[in-house]
Design goal:
74 residues, alpha/beta, Rossmann fold, 4-stranded mixed beta sheet, 3 helices, 4 strands
Length: 74
């Protein structure tokens, strides 16, 4: 499934990928989204909702994990 939205936490405020725009981000189904956060509980909650979730540890790891998802990874 294609990734239509990447959602991430910036200082407690959820942000979306600007290139997609608000409409595309909010119309995406959970399985079309990727959630990125450095709080394990938030990542677990997103995963429970069916959103592909990545625990942020560092930029290189996050970029690699997102690249893997876009390329068709789990």
């Amino acid at each position: 499934m294609a990734v239509r939205a990447v959602v991430f936490d910036v200082g407690g405020v959820l942000e979306y990928t600007p290139a997609l725009g608000t409409q595309a981000a909010w119309e995406a189904r959970p399985e079309e989204m990727v959630f990125l956060d450095d709080v394990p509980a938030a990542v677990e909650a997103a995963a429970e909702l069916g959103i592909r979730a990545i625990l942020f540890r560092n930029t290189a790891q996050a970029v690699a994990d997102i690249d893997a998802l876009v390329a068709g990874g789990p």
